[in-house]
C-alpha cells in the first residue's frame, strides 16, 4: 500500500513497519512529532484548560465561566457565533438558549447532530448586557479561535450573523450582502448566514438560511 501524503498516520505506520523489518525495536520521536500525534481531543482539552482563568481582556471581569466550545474535535463543519449569551455563561456551553435550540434544529435539518459538528464563538466570555464584543476583546481572543480551528481543521465554517461574519472576514459589509456567498478565513471556506436569534425575530428569512445551509451540505457531500 502506498502512503497517502494526506494521511500522516498511515505514513508513520509504514515507517514503523520498515524500521521493524530492519530489526529496530525502539522508536525515538522528536517532541514536535509527539505533539502532532496527540489527539485533537487532547489538544482541545489542553487549550480549554489553559483558558479557564484567562484574563487577557476585560470580559473576564463579569463572566461566570469561559465558554470554550462544544462538539466533535474532528468536525468537518464549525459554526461560529459572536459571543456567549447569559444562558451560555451560566451553563458553559455555546448556543443553549432559544437561539441555540433553533441552531440545533438547523443542524438536525442537515441530517447532522450537535455531536457531529463543532460550535463556538469569536469571543469566549459573555459580553455584559449582550453588547457586541469590543475590538480589543476580539483581538485578545482571536488567537484562541485560530488555535481551535488549527486543531479541528474543518472543511467549512458557518459564520452566524453579521457580527461573527464581519469579525472573521475583517469587513464592514452587511450580512444581507455576504450571506449565501462563499468566503475564506485562513484557508477555510466560510458561509456567512443569518444568526438564529435574528431568525426568531424574522422567521420569514429561515428559507434564506436553509438555502445557505444547502450550499454547505453540497460542499460537504451531505445528502438532503
Ligand atoms: S474573551 Fe477571550 S481573551 Fe477575553 S478573557 Fe475571555 S477567553 Fe480571555
Write the layout of secondary structure elements.
Blueprint: H1 8-21, H2 31-37, H3 40-51, E1 70-71, E2 77-81, H4 86-91, H5 98-109, E3 118-121, H6 135-152, E4 156-160, H7 161-169, H8 175-178, E5 183-185, E6 188-193, H9 196-201, H10 206-220
Parallel strand pairs: 2-3, 2-4, 4-6
Antiparallel strand pairs: 1-3, 5-6
Helix pairs in contact: 3-6
This protein binds iron/sulfur cluster.
Report on the architecture of this protein.
With 224 residues, the protein is of the alpha/beta class. It has 2 domains: 1-37, no CATH class; 40-220, Uracil-DNA glycosylase-like domain (Uracil-DNA Glycosylase, subunit E), CATH 3.40.470. 46% of the residues lie in helices and 11% in strands. Strand 5 (183-185) and strand 6 form a beta hairpin. Helix 3 (40-51) runs antiparallel to helix 6 (135-152). The longest helix has 18 residues, at 135-152. The protein is globular and about 70 Å long. Residues 1-6 have low confidence and may be disordered. Bound molecules: iron/sulfur cluster (SF4). Iron/sulfur cluster binds next to helix 6. Iron/sulfur cluster (SF4) binds at residues 51, 54-57, 59-60, 66, 123-125, 137, 140-141, 144.
Amino acid at each position: 500500500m502506498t502512503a497517502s501524503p494526506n494521511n500522516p498516520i498511515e505514513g508513520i505506520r509504514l515507517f514503523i513497519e520498515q524500521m521493524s523489518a530492519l530489526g529496530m525495536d525502539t522508536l525515538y520521536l522528536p517532541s514536535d512529532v509527539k505533539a502532532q500525534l496527540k489527539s485533537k481531543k487532547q489538544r482541545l482539552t489542553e487549550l480549554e484548560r489553559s483558558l479557564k482563568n484567562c484574563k487577557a481582556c476585560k470580559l473576564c471581569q463579569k463572566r461566570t465561566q469561559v465558554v470554550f466550545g462544544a462538539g466533535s474535535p474532528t468536525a468537518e463543519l464549525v459554526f461560529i457565533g459572536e459571543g456567549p449569551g447569559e444562558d451560555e455563561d451560566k451553563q458553559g456551553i455555546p448556543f443553549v438558549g432559544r437561539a441555540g435550540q433553533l441552531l440545533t434544529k438547523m443542524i438536525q435539518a442537515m441530517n447532522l447532530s450537535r455531536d457531529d459538528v463543532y460550535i463556538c464563538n469569536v469571543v469566549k466570555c459573555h459580553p455584559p448586557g449582550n453588547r457586541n464584543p469590543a475590538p480589543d476583546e476580539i483581538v485578545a481572543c482571536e488567537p484562541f479561535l485560530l488555535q481551535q480551528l488549527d486543531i479541528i481543521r474543518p472543511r467549512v465554517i458557518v459564520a452566524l450573523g453579521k457580527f461573527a461574519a464581519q469579525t472573521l472576514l475583517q469587513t464592514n459589509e452587511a450580512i444581507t450582502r455576504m450571506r449565501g456567498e462563499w468566503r475564506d478565513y485562513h484557508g477555510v471556506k466560510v458561509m456567512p448566514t443569518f444568526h438564529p436569534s435574528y431568525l426568531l425575530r424574522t422567521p420569514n428569512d429561515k428559507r434564506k438560511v436553509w438555502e445557505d445551509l444547502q450550499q454547505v451540505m453540497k460542499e460537504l457531500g451531505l445528502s438532503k
